[in-house]
Amino acid sequence: MSGQRRIVWLASYPRSGNTWTRLLLANFLSAAAEPVGINDIGNAMSSALTYGLPWFDSVAGISSSDCTEEEAESLRPAVVRFWAQEAKREGREETPLFCKSHEACRTTPAGEPLFPDDVTVGAVYLIRNPLDVAVSWAFYNGNEGFADSVAYLNAQTSSIGGAGSHELRQWLFDWSGHVESWTGAPFPVLTVRYEDLLADTVGWLGRIASFLRLDGASDHRRLEQAVAHSAFARLQENEDREGFRKRGLYSRTPFFRSGVAGDWRRHLSAAQVRDVLAAHGATMARFGYSCRATG
Amino acid sequence: MAAQQVPFTIDADFDLGEAAAPWSRAHGADVVVRRGTVPSSLPRPESRGVAWQHAAGRTLILTPCGVRFLVEGGSTMRYALDGGASPADLRLFFLGTALSVLTAQRGLLPLKASAVADGEDVHALIGMPARGKSASAAALAARGYPFFADDLLILDPEGLDTEARCYRCDDLKVWPKALALADCEERGPVRGTSKYRKLYAMPRQRAARVSGRLRTVVYLASFKRGDTSGDRHSTHLERLSGSEKVEAVVRAAIHSRPITIAVVGRLPLFQWVMALSRRMEMLRFTRSEIPTVFGAGVNRIAALLSATESGAVQTCKGAAP
Fold first, then answer.
1. Cβ A85 vs Cβ A200: under 8 Å
2. Which of A195, A268, A286, B205 qualifies as a FRET site for B92, CA 20 to 30 Å off?
3. Residue A61: which of B178, B232, B256 has the nearest Cβ?
4. What are the boundaries of each domain within chain B?
5. A70 to chain B, minimum CA–CA distance in Å?
6. Which helix (DSSP H) or strand (DSSP E) does residue A78 occupy?
7. Do B65 and A69 count as a contact with CB atoms less than 8 A apart?
8. A119: Cβ–Cβ under 8 A, 6 or more apart, which residues?
9. Is A243 on the interface with B (CB under 8 A)?
10. In chain B, which residues have their Cβ closer than 8 Å to the Cβ of A68?
């Protein structure tokens, strides 16, 4: 890692393969015979949930629950920089610091980038067909009517976390705004389609590892092992056995529910598909999505 | 009379509020708090974070709302209000971060906890942020356990081997949605800005005493590894082992943790935590965070507190009615 730049943002709109990608990377980095457990991702790689209240409070030193959302947000760039500097001071210079984010790549109310360029190596941005995102988001929230989920993807003001939750408020924008914010970020971004990752997981994990200049990026056996350790059936079995802390509070289905591309065809109405296309057709086309194509 | 019960007294030039009244003394107090000049940084800090610096027994706290504190030697504190910070903002950060630093400087252990009273005894609720500590304490107050403390519970590490004496200082603060859940009455906004939504609240019962014997620590959690029932009404109760106790306190119960570590030092703080862990019965209570099962979860906590009195705590899985 050069200078202060050591943070890798693993970014996506919710329900776009972020957790699976983190498991792929965790298994690749650990290179162990045993798979990384779904509840142990954070222990397998230097990582942080920078939007989580425990992490924020422990780095900032003051309690986010004493702050307004704007005040806490105003501290976030400094908190991220401080974390990166501490990693250097502690001699963890060669290891990337992985940060998951579902938030749009945006600025604080004061105009400061929330994802500071000066400490960022780059971002891996996962994008998934919003029609499938709408379905997955609905199941995650235990609300399988799908209309709310479509409205959520289409609203400029959608957010997660905030008041009384375990996470700081994270503004998403609408789905297209989220995509535009990350693909136009002022640092290197590798955009990975979830559907492509599904179709050629070893190949795309290798591209991600190469982009991040990780040791072993061209080690085919290591990549294959990481992919096998992160196979969807294995993750489902892991969740069956011990539960998953990230499962939706109101969800009636497992976190690792389906994972397939094109599930929207079984669930969304024609009107719901039209609503998504009307709002995001241009962005979808830019990334090779249409309502006819597989994915 | 009440002032005799607290480990130190405070002479502040602003109103500390009703709950902290026993700490207040107009003359001859152990700690003097005054508005004055507060630097924006300390020279050659020994340790620092985003919102604080520490050097040579002095701790600087820089809040994002514009309240700044300089806490020195456990005996004096200066504060400044910048950028529209209000007296309400001052009181909130004084009775939270600043007082925790002051107590650490005075050799006391600031715990991030809510608590209820049980006669002379105190039961503390700890947990990661937003696990429902305050709301649970308030709800327990409607079930026969008078509310004792919110956010900051001050523990005297001296004598931990014989008695864990603890102190309270602040009023109850809850999110608006918790008012009805916890059966308490709104008492006005906590901060001087409408952008901050927590409210002061009055629980159904409040302990008159300012100190008590810490008897039980309940660690509130929301995920139980191995619970695959998918039943969001289930609860789990486990007695924590020695190492689990230490981990729970270190992870979730040290107020303003990085600052407290800087002020106290890692080794002395660890020794305090070890002593506390040896002394205390600690239980992990895992419950869903779905609001509709909150009341049933609190009923189970009340039942387990009752069981700790009789020594009949059983670790078990249960289901809310």
1. no
2. B205
3. B256
4. 10-108, 111-167+208-319
5. 8
6. helix A69-89
7. no
8. A4, A5, A6, A7, A80, A81, A84
9. yes
10. 65, 191, 193, 195-196
Alpha-carbon gap, residue B233 to B293, rounded angstroms: 6
Cβ–Cβ below 8 Å for A243 and B225 = yes
What chain A holds in terms of domains, given with CATH numbers, is 7-128+159-262 (3.40.50.300)
Model ipTM?
0.92
B216 or B320: which carries more pLDDT confidence?
B216
Instruction: Name the residue type at position A154.
Output: N
Residue type, A114: L
Distance (Å, whole) CA B152 – CA B252: 12
Return the sign of the alpha-carbon dihedral for residues A18, A20, A21, A23.
positive
pLDDT surpasses 90 at A155:
yes
Q: β-strands B52-55, B47-49: how paired?
A: antiparallel
Q: pTM value?
A: 0.92
Among A49, A56, A91, A90, CA closest to A73: A56
Which pLDDT does position B15 carry in this prediction? 93
B-chain residues near A69 (CB < 8 A): 195
Pairing mode of beta strands B147-149, B114-118: antiparallel
Topology of domain B111-167+208-319, per CATH? Rossmann fold (3.40.50)
Taking only the tens place, the pLDDT of each residue in B236-252 is: 888 999 999 999 999 99
Which residue bears the tokens 């007082």?
B99
